[in-house]
Design a protein that fits this description.
The chain is of the alpha/beta class and about 260 residues long. It has helices at about 15-30, 40-50, 65-80, 100-130, 150-170, 190-200, 205-215, 225-235, and strands at about 10, 30-35, 55-60, 85, 135-140, 175-185, 245-250. α4 (about 100-130) links the parallel β4 (about 85) and β5.
């Protein structure tokens, strides 16, 4: 098992869903955790604290570079900096290009792409100074293929993979690595809403779930947050030290088609 005792991980968008699953995996491996997300985080903090590490929370809105800077300053002040950065925060909106609201485009690019740049640029100096660091960007299969109605999301996730490659190259001779993980369908609240919408139209809920998966994911099974957390742990391990600038698919065969 990867041991991360003494390391501090910052996971953006980690008060629920994929981010929380990754945070729990890191905490189980001994890392201290900085959680990020809106609202009352007390329940989530308690859930992560059970593994014994130090846990903090910063409510930064990652669409705002100034708040990202405040979050990284908090990490330096309270935890001595960030050793593992997981850029996970993301939002979605579905509409045809000609109907896509400009403000929604701007928000998705800011949260799904620009925040990755700002968190990375602010974390890298400390990682270089310590001589060790891991940056893991949660991209998507939509970083490599398109889907109708998802122009901003697809553009942002393609950008995340491009940024990952550049940072991977720029850190290639150091003990800092940067990689992207590309999940397929994960049963998050957002995906559950899509299943519920199909069920509301008269489709049996189990059939609605099957149909959603069958359209894209050959395994007919969802990727789970714990599986994503285990992949993050691998990338943090010595075994993952020469995985650099990669876009790692975990998608039930979606991109093999």
């Amino acid at each position: 098992m990867t041991t991360l005792s003494g390391k501090t991980a910052l996971v953006t968008g980690s008060t629920s869903g994929i981010g929380l699953g990754i945070a729990l995996s890191l905490a189980k491996a001994g890392a201290n955790l900085i959680l990020n997300g809106f609202g009352d985080a007390s329940t989530v903090i308690a859930e992560v604290e059970q593994f014994g590490g130090k846990v903090g929370h910063h409510p930064a809105d990652v669409s705002d570079p100034a708040q990202i800077a405040e979050m990284l300053a908090y990490a330096e002040r309270e935890f001595g900096g960030v050793d593992i950065l997981v850029n996970n925060a993301g939002i979605q909106h579905v509409a045809a290009v000609e109907d896509f609201p400009v403000e929604r485009w701007d928000s998705i690019i800011a949260i799904n792409l620009s925040s990755v740049f700002h968190s990375t640029r602010l974390s890298l100096p400390g990682m270089r100074a310590k001589g060790w660091g891991r940056i893991v960007n949660i991209a998507s299969v939509h970083g490599q293929v398109g889907s109708v109605g998802k122009a901003a999301y697809v553009a942002a996730k393609h950008g995340v993979i491009g940024l990952t490659k550049v940072v991977g190259l720029e850190t290639a001779t150091s003990n800092v690595t940067c990689n992207a993980i590309c999940p397929g369908w994960v049963l998050t609240p957002l995906v559950q809403k899509q299943i519920d919408a199909r069920a509301a139209a008269g489709v049996d809920p189990q059939q609605a779930q099957h149909d959603l998966l069958a359209e894209k994911q050959p395994s007919l099974e969802f990727v789970t947050p714990p599986q994503l957390g285990e992949l993050v742990l691998f990338l943090c391990s010595e075994a993952g030290s020469q995985v650099r600038g990669a876009a790692w698919n975990i998608d039930g065969g979606w991109l093999a088609q």
